[in-house]
Amino acid sequence: MRMKIYCWVLMGVLMGMLTACSYEEELELMDVAIKLEYPANTIEPYEGAAVEIRNAVASLFITETNSDGVAHITIPSGIYEITSSGVHIEGDYRYIYNGVKSQVVVSPDSTNVIPLKLTVTKKRIVK
């Protein structure tokens, strides 16, 4: 009788281990749009501005803007830091820009159009 009880207990433990091992967590992916906002009287949005998105475990996602100054990407839900910086030459001027936004929540409950305000410095190119 005791052996029968041990067998049932052992079978229950094994079944519990097998069901615990079969658990698979799926990542919830979200479509996100990052809109770069340039200061007035500087440069217009352009295609190819780099945008970096980093999460809390230092995973880095890199994308570029389209001609409207919007970068589209699909990333897992989480909390992110979004940055953009670079140099853009237009006419006789070099524009140096950068911006950062921290603690950005990406989830089904949040807005997934994220504005990123940039600061811009304008330098004349001397030839």
What does this molecule look like?
This protein is α+β, with helices and mostly antiparallel strands and 127 residues long. It is built from one helix and eight strands. It has one helix at residues 2-21; strands spanning 29-37, 50-55, 60-64, 70-76, 78-90, 93-106, 113-117, 119-124. It has a five-stranded antiparallel beta sheet with strand order 3-2-5-6-8, with no helix packed on it. The mean pLDDT is 85.
Write the layout of secondary structure elements.
Layout: H1 2-21, E1 29-37, E2 50-55, E3 60-64, E4 70-76, E5 78-90, E6 93-106, E7 113-117, E8 119-124
Parallel strand pairs: 1-7
Antiparallel strand pairs: 1-4, 2-3, 2-5, 5-6, 6-8
